[in-house]
Amino acid sequence: MHNHSLFEFVGQFSSELFELACRIENQLLDQPLASLIQARLYTEQLVKVISKEEGFEDIYPLKHSERIHKLYRQNVVEEDIYLKLEWIRKKGNKAAHDIKEVSITDVLQVHKFLFEISVWYMQVYVSYDFEAPIYKQPIKTAQETINPLGAKELDVLIKPYVDQTLQKMDDMWIEVQRQLEAIKEEAKLVQTEAATSEAISLQQSEIAATAEKETLASSQVNPQMTSLEWIFAKNNFKLTKQTKKATEFEHMKNGEVLYLMAYKEISIVLNPKIVENNQSFNGGKESHSTALTRFPKKIKNGKTPTSYGYAYKFKTEEELGAFLKSLDDILI
User: What is the pTM of this model?
Assistant: First the structure.
């Protein structure tokens, strides 16, 4: 039975993952060992979906741990999500190879982490304006077990995980933290090397960019453009970058950037600095996504800041064109 499942929204992007989430919920407290193993399988399947959407599987298939690490290195997932994915992976691996009794606090924390990871995926890849349900501990499931746990007893069990910071949870979490620090050090080295290379080629890049702007300005209508791309070009926005999650456009006269999100509805995200300093842009909704790479960051949930902007939806291409025309007039 899936009535009133906390993970009901997962069915909007995967019926298989929804079924798996329901099985985990139903057996969470009476079969904790199996729950940890299945939780690892849930995150493995979800991470595989993300990896394919980001184009990481095109060359050769990756292992689960490799996918998680690569997603973090490429700024697809923020630190908070990375830590939760790694913690579940390690707990699931341990459960699969160790038949010792599993701590109830572990499965309760896994349940909460699965919920938070699923909400993150929903908001980043499915719908930026998704309103997550309020998280609830699986008390009803606990009351149906052979040794029922009351709400008060369950609160006592979960309290250490709520009160403590994530770094202090257990030895395994400390291990994940060390792993994260190693990745950060590696990233710093790569960034230093990249900065040196970028400084050498900066002047050439600026010359090439200027030539590209002049070329596009003189011939905005490209027969290979989609109808949406043509609308952007007609309003002085050139396509500069495209990913699975968003298409980046840059204004050809002042360099201002906006993003066309890869949703079913037409949705663009503007730089918060423009919106917050201009009363003309009322009605935008704050949206966080790792795809907004050239926008400022701030903390929404969790511990690490993510790129954000203000999103606007349009029912038709005509509405989008009118909005971009007014935006172009302001930017000029």
Answer: 0.61
